[in-house]
Amino acid sequence: AMDEAPPPPSPSGLSAYVAVSQLLGLTLLGTIGAWLGRYRGGVAWHSPLQFNAHPLCMVLGMVFLQGDALLVYRVFRHEAKRSTKALHALLHGLALVIALVGIIAVFESHRAKGIPDMYSLHSWCGMATFVLYLLQWFLGCGFFLFPGASFSLRGWYKPQHIFFGITLFILSIASCLLGITEMLLFNISDSYSHFVPEGILANTLGVLLVAFGLVVGYVLTREEWKRPPLAEELALSMDFKTLTEGESPGG
C-alpha cells in the first residue's frame, strides 16, 4: 500500500468553480426560503400554504440537486466508477422524489382553491421537463447502472444521455424562471413595477438560478475537467466488450 502513488490533484481552477457553484446553490435555497417565509407566509401541508411547497421543492430538486448530480463525475475523479455512478443516480433519484412532492403540492393546492391546472406556459414546460427527466433517469439506470446493455449500445447512448442531461438542467432553470414570474404576477401585479422588496428578492432569486446554471454548465463543458478513466476501468471496459460483443480485447 505504501508503494501506491497518491491520486493526481484536481485540474487547476476546478475546485474553485465547484465551490462557487455550491455557494450559489446554498444562497439560492436561502433566498427562496426567505421569500416564502417573509412574504408568502411559509410552508405547510394541507393548508392554504401548501402551494408554497411547490417552488421550494422544484428549486431544491430540479435545480440544486440536479446540478450537483451533474457535477459528480467532475468532483469524484479518482473514486471507483461504480460508486460514482451510484451517487449520480441517487442524487437524480432524490431530485425526482422531491420534485414529485412539489408537483403533488401544486395540484392539491389548486384543487382546494378551485384553480384550473396545466393552462400556463410554466406548467407545460415544467411538466414536460419532469416527465423527460424521469425518463432520462430510468434510461440512465438501465444503460449504465444495471447490467444488460451491450458495449456498443452503451457507446451509442452515452452522448444522448449527456446531451439530454444538460438540456434538462437548462429547461429546469427556465421553468423555474417562468414560475417565479407567474407567482409575482399573481400576487403583486399591482405593485411589482414599483420595485417593492418582494419583487426585488424574487428577481434576485432568478438571477441566482441563472448564475448557478452558468457555473455548473461551465464546469461540465470544460474538456480538460472531464473525469479521466482509471486504468482498471479501461481493463474492465475491454473485458465487458469482449463478453458482450464477442470480440477479443485486441480486436
Description:
With 251 residues, the chain is mainly α. It has a single domain, classed as Four Helix Bundle (Hemerythrin (Met), subunit A) (Up-down Bundle). The protein has 7 helices and no strands. It has helices spanning 14-39, 53-75, 81-113, 121-145, 151-188, 197-221, 231-245. The radius of gyration is 21 Å and the shape is globular.
Task: Supply database-style keywords.
translocase, mainly alpha, transport, 251 residues, 7 helices, disordered C terminus, globular, 74% helix, Four Helix Bundle (Hemerythrin (Met), subunit A), single chain, Transmembrane ascorbate-dependent reductase CYB561
Query: For the terminal residues, how far apart are their CA atoms?
Result: 34 Å
Spell the H/E element sequence. Answer: HHHHHHH
Number of helices: 7
Oligomer: single chain
Outline the secondary-structure elements.
Blueprint: H1 14-39, H2 53-75, H3 81-113, H4 121-145, H5 151-188, H6 197-221, H7 231-245
Helix pairs in contact: 1-2, 1-6, 2-3, 2-5, 2-6, 3-4, 4-5, 5-6
